[in-house]
């Protein structure tokens, strides 16, 4: 381990009905572990759902899984160096179970998740709403290029990497017509990714302001015609139901927004058979998707106004405001611990 003076750190602890700022000792890293000083965290929609009661999460806990930070200490064998500016994966895999062996580490049988672990567990500093986070051995870490600002890099850890996984599941994008459901952070990012890969990317959302904003990221307005792929980031049964009949022969429906129980959908198996449809879903992502996310943002930072999607950062003391307010036109609220 590099020379490291332990001190105090502050963390925003979600208690179920409130968030307390707690001061505690900053631990030294164990073997394979990395201690990161958080530079900026962004508030993902799932954290908004947790705080509003729409989503179950361990409690008490330190929320926050989209963040960028600077490595301040490393344990032996850790995949980073002190001084690196990095983003890290949401999931931490064991690397030993059958699913990890098959390359599905996002669904590791012993998976742990950044921003989703109990504050009372052996991984106390597990979330981004803190001045520091400890990344256990098995966490995928990616260095951030110097020209990529913190506000652009932070969403890579969830939104951008998730989009990379969804687009991969849809197959080759070149020359294809794609319909994207939702012009939030994921849908807007998906429009940019699909366009970058040669697709005719259309987007739908009831919010006209968000639709207009998505145009700056390569999106086109829906023309109502047949499409080769549908990417759903809404989780809305109505959108899925209405978009499915528009899938052309050998089309793919990729579900990424349905992360909570919802109404059942009727699907005609004959249509799937005769039209060679693929219906699939993704939840979380693999380390390669995080690497692709950072590389993509690095290539397109001058092409699209990524930083305009994120608010000016609030201090950690205002985390309650950050997680209880909708971001509006800015698709991510930022916190700078």
- Going by helix content, strand content and strand pairing, the class is alpha/beta
What series of H and E elements makes up the topology? EEEHEEHEEEHHEHEHEEHEHEHEHE
Estimate nothing, just give the exact number of structural domains.
2
Radius of gyration: 20 Å
Count of DSSP-assigned helices: 10
Q: Look at the structure and give the CATH class of the largest domain.
A: Alpha Beta
Strand content: 25-35%
Q: What does the overall shape look like?
A: globular
Report the helical percentage.
10-25%
- The CATH H-level superfamily of the largest domain is Medium-chain alcohol dehydrogenases, catalytic domain
Provide an overview of this structure.
The chain is an alpha/beta fold. The chain has two domains: 8-157 and 305-336, Quinone Oxidoreductase, Chain A, domain 1, CATH 3.90.180; 163-281, NAD(P)-binding Rossmann-like Domain (Rossmann fold), CATH 3.40.50.720. It has ten helices and 16 strands. The strands form three sheets. Strands 3, 4, 5, 6, 7, 8, 15 and 16 form an eight-stranded mixed beta sheet that branches. Strands 11-10-9-12-13-14 form a six-stranded parallel beta sheet, sandwiched between helices. Strands 1-2 form a two-stranded antiparallel sheet. α10 links the parallel β15 and β16. The protein is globular, with a radius of gyration of 20 Å. The relative contact order is 0.16. Its cofactor is Zn(2+).
């Amino acid at each position: 381990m590099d020379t490291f003076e332990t001190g105090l750190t502050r963390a925003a602890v979600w208690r179920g009905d409130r968030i307390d700022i707690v001061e505690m000792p900053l631990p030294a890293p164990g073997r394979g572990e990395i201690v990161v000083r958080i530079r900026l965290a962004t508030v993902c929609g799932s954290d908004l759902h947790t705080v509003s009661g729409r989503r179950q999460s361990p409690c008490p806990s330190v929320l926050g899984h989209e963040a960028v930070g600077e490595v301040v200490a490393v344990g032996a064998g850790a995949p980073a160096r002190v001084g690196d500016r990095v983003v890290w994966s949401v999931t931490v895999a064991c690397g030993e179970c059958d699913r990890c062996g098959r390359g599905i580490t996002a669904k590791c049988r012993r998976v742990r998740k950044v921003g989703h672990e109990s504050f009372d567990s052996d991984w106390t500093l597990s979330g981004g709403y803190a001045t520091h986070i400890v990344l256990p051995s098995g966490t995928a870490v990616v260095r951030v290029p110097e020209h990529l600002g913190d506000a652009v890099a932070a969403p890579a850890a969830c939104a951008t990497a998730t989009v990379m996984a969804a687009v991969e599941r849809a197959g080759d994008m070149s020359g294809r017509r794609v319909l994207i459901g939702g012009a939030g952070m994921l849908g807007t990012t998906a429009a940019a990714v699909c366009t970058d890969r040669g697709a005719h990317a259309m987007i739908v959302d009831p919010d006209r302001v968000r639709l207009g904003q998505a145009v700056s990221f390569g999106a086109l307005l829906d023309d109502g015609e047949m499409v080769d792929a549908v990417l759903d980031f809404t989780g809305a049964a109505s959108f899925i139901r209405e978009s499915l009949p528009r899938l052309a022969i050998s089309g793919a429906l990729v579900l990424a927004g349905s992360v909570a129980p919802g109404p059942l959908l009727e699907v005609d198996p004959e249509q799937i058979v005769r039209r060679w449809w693929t219906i699939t879903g993704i939840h979380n992502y693999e380390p390669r998707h995080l690497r692709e996310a950072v590389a993509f943002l690095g290539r397109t930072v001058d092409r699209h106004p990524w930083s305009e999607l994120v608010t000016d950062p609030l201090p950690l003391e205002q985390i309650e405001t950050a997680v209880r307010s909708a971001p509006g036109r800015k698709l991510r609220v930022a916190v700078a611990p």
